[in-house]
Design brief:
The complex is a heterodimer. Chain A is mainly α. Chain A has helices at about 10-35, 50-60, 65-75, 85-105, 115-120, 125-155, 160-185, 195-225, 230-260, 265-275, 285-300, 305, 310-325, 330-335, 350-385. The longest helix of chain B has 13 residues, at about 5-15. Chain B is an alpha+beta fold. Classes of the chains: A mainly alpha, B alpha+beta. At the A-B interface, helix 5 and helix 6 of A face helix 7, helix 8 and strand 6 of B.
Chain lengths: ~400, ~260
């Protein structure tokens, strides 16, 4: 089926060329990083994780997109998602590949990465994260590919794929839980030491993943010649609305616990995030951007009249994605380190090479996504007659 | 004979499986033979050994502006010194008392306490979070309590730095060698990309000599010994004096005792 990705119009190839260029620039700076060391980034002795691990944490959430389609379709027979479960699975594949790449570029000695398997440490959550992420990657590649191949040949999917799909549901929960446990199990970092870390990961994941999926569906409808159907898109929008509401509720719960209890070491990081601490205000603008974007998006998604208009839905989904990128990215990783265990206020500013490498990894992810979706629309376009309409890809 | 794609894949798969063979056929006793047990000497003098190594810092004796222990430790262990704090590598250093013991700090505590500088280092915890989180076993605890690093196994993921509640760990964000003024050939320099920290001078204990910081302290403010031995100097001090441990409420069991 891969050959389907080799035929496209000029716009398709331009897009691919852009992505390859960004990835190549990232690769060039990664070579520089390999040569000099991680000192090329903004990370320091006090703030020892930065942009890379923030992207990893956020993208684990995006990978949840698949389960929000698979669960309603396979467990509740919600037919509207039947056409697009494969889209969710391929998005999950691209997101997990980016996660793995972000962890990889964050390693000080990447050549030794297999030590995690050669000397497995069952007590280490990072070991289990490697296990669940690679498992989730495999499950989604297999299910997405098998279902699409069968659709191409116009035969029903084999019986053995059903149990694999069912397995993917608890497995999706596991990737968030295990990733949250990396943070929630550390004794000295009170910002992360919270039992609702895993629920927070799940809630924000079920908002950011489907929000991206809606955007993808809108793009494919306009330019890709594939219509997911209004019913599916609206159902996804409702999922995003609920998940975003729960996600914001969880943030509020954290704020209450920190400030009503009044324990300084729990308050300090939230003060740093939203107001600045001891004159250090590096994240204040970002966090208020998160608050405004998330609140605005929630309002749009909750009002049916607005949600049903594409002109409102698309920006709302962009706002959901951007706000959770802030909140589940740097807004979650950095306050674990600021203030430091010795109460030092060391702020973090990503460097140019670090940003270039980060964009490079995103470009690789979008390249994978584009190729998969190209195959998908070509295969699907050959089977499903695309309804003619102004927004359907008649061009 | 023409081989089909199926045959080719079969052969390729079987060949790939043979990569697993070394892990199956290297017997565990062959690995054990490479380990020098703690307390076993590898020099002419008998090694110093203990059931549980620990250190007491006598704050009444420690003088604020003295940096002898830091200089000695960092010279012996090839700890680099860079001009920017971002790339800092520190094994032992000083911090204000108010930052080391924030819970004991209040606006009316005396000037002397407010200005006090306290030496800090790895606490060689009884229940070390860094060991728990390490995905490769590169950081590990010995039976005598020393928490150690295998610089050749560390992948540089820095999860141990996030896990340590004492900020005792440093990452080699760049090649440390240009930052070392005089390389001590008796101790390995590290490479870029690995995490390091105080090792309680296990290499000196094996030769029968006390840790470098303890030997360098002219005030005798650092007392090193076996806390499991009721007649050791450190135990006698802990009997007599009031002591604090950093963030002991976290359950890490820190083994650096600060005497007031």
């Amino acid at each position: 089926m891969l050959e389907k990705a080799l035929h496209g119009r000029r716009g398709y190839w331009m897009w691919i060329a852009c992505l390859i260029l960004v990835a190549a620039v990232g690769f060039f700076f990664y070579m520089r990083q390999l040569d000099y060391g991680l000192g090329i980034t903004g990370m320091s002795r006090d703030v020892s994780w930065g942009l890379y691990i923030a992207q990893f944490t956020f993208l684990v959430g995006v990978a949840a997109s698949a389960v929000m389609l698979v669960l309603p379709y396979y467990l509740h027979d919600y037919k509207a998602f039947g056409k697009i479960t494969v889209l969710g699975e391929f998005l999950a594949v691209a997101a997990v590949v980016m996660c793995i790449l972000f962890v990889f570029v964050d390693l000080g000695r990447p050549a030794r990465v297999l030590n995690v398997l050669l000397h497995p440490q069952p007590a280490s959550i990072l070991f289990w994260d490697m296990v669940v992420l690679s498992g989730y990657l495999l499950i989604n590649i297999v299910t997405g590919w098998v279902i699409l191949s069968c659709a191409k040949k116009d035969i029903p999917p084999p019986a053995w794929i059903k149990p694999v799909i069912y397995l993917s549901i608890p497995w999706a929960i596991s990737i968030h839980t295990v990733t949250a446990f990396i943070y929630a199990g550390l004794p000295g970092r009170s910002f992360w030491l919270t039992a609702i870390m895993a629920p927070r990961f799940l809630a924000s994941a079920f908002a950011s993943g489907p929000a991206l999926l809606i955007l993808v569906c809108l793009i494919l409808r306009r330019w890709g010649g594939f219509d997911a159907g209004e019913k599916a898109i609206q159902a996804l929008a409702k999922i995003v609305a609920y998940a975003l509401a729960v996600s914001l509720f969880f943030v509020g719960v954290e704020l209450f616990t920190a400030f009503y209890s009044g324990i300084p070491e729990h308050e300090a990081q939230f003060i740093y995030l939203f107001a600045g601490l001891h004159g250090h205000t590096g994240l204040v603008g970002w966090m208020w951007a998160f608050a405004v974007l998330a609140a605005g998006a929630l309002a749009v998604l909750l009002i049916p009249g607005l949600r049903k208009q594409e002109t409102w839905l698309a920006p709302a989904c962009v706002a959901v994605f951007a706000s959770l990128w802030i909140e589940k990215g740097l807004g979650l990783v950095l306050p674990g380190f600021i203030p430091s265990p010795l109460e030092a206020m060391t702020e973090y500013h990503p460097t140019g090479p670090e940003i270039a490498i980060t964009l490079g990894v995103w470009a690789v992810g979008f390249l994978i996504l584009t190729v998969f979706y190209k195959i998908f629309t070509t295969v699907r376009g050959g089977i499903v007659s695309v309804p003619a309409g102004p927004a359907a890809g008649g061009r | 004979m023409t081989s089909s794609r199926r045959d080719f894949l079969k052969i390729a798969g079987a060949s790939a499986l043979t990569l697993l063979a070394p892990s199956i056929f290297v017997p565990t006793w062959a690995e054990d033979a490479m380990v020098i047990p703690p307390g076993r000497a590898y020099g002419p003098t008998p090694a110093l050994s203990a059931r549980r190594w620990a250190m007491a810092v006598d704050l009444a004796r420690c003088t604020t502006d003295c940096t002898d222990c830091i200089a000695a430790c960092h010279a012996v262990h090839n700890v680099p010194n860079f001009s920017n704090s971002k790339d800092d590598v520190k094994w032992i250093w000083t911090e204000p008392f108010t930052a080391v013991f924030p819970a004991e700090n209040h606006p009316y505590s005396g000037q002397a306490l407010q200005k006090l500088k306290v030496p800090v280092l790895c606490n060689h915890c009884d229940n070390p979070p860094c060991v728990r989180v390490c995905p490769t076993g590169a950081t590990f605890a010995r039976p005598d309590g020393i928490v150690m690093m295998d610089y050749h196994r560390c992948i540089g993921c820095r999860l141990c730095m996030a896990a340590c509640p004492y900020g005792a760990r440093s990452m080699n964000y760049r090649d440390p060698r240009p930052g070392i003024s005089a390389i001590n050939p008796n101790f390995p320099t590290r490479a870029k990309g690995v995490v390091e920290k105080c090792n309680f001078c296990e290499e000196r204990l094996a030769k029968g000599i006390p840790p470098a910081c303890v030997a360098a302290c002219r005030q005798k403010a650092l007392v090193f010994g076996d806390v499991e031995d009721p007649r050791s100097d450190i135990r006698l001090l802990l009997e007599k004096r009031f002591s604090l441990r950093r963030r002991a409420h976290l359950g890490t069991g820190p083994q650096i005792y600060y005497l007031l």
